[in-house]
Amino acid sequence: MGKRGRKPGVKQDGVSKLERSRLSARECRVRKKLRYEYLEELVQDREKAISALEHELELYRKVCEQIDSGNITEELRNLVESDWFVKS
């Protein structure tokens, strides 16, 4: 079994090690920034979807209230028979 650490005969100067460390840190910051941008986009998409669903739910509530009250208007009849209502 070999020893851990640097190999004998290979000298590592402090400047190149420091430069690799800086490069690694820079790459890490770039990856972190990309990850946050992706997550922000994901949140925005989900918020839009939630808003659309809330709007649709409110529409269904109004339709149900009108049906329960027996107040079926021509507009409600057209809405119920429309493609949008059937697809949803």
TrEMBL record:
Coiled coil region boundaries: none
Superkingdom of the organism of origin: Eukaryota
Classification via InterPro entries: bZIP, bZIP_sf, CREBL2/REPTOR-BP
GO cellular component, one term: nucleus
GO MF term (any one): DNA binding
Region (Disordered): 1-21
Residue span(s) of domain BZIP: 19-62
Compartment(s): Nucleus
Keywords: Activator, DNA-binding, Nucleus, Transcription, Transcription regulation
Family assignment from sequence similarity: Belongs to the bZIP family. ATF subfamily.
Protein name, per record: BZIP domain-containing protein
Species assigned in the record: Brachionus calyciflorus
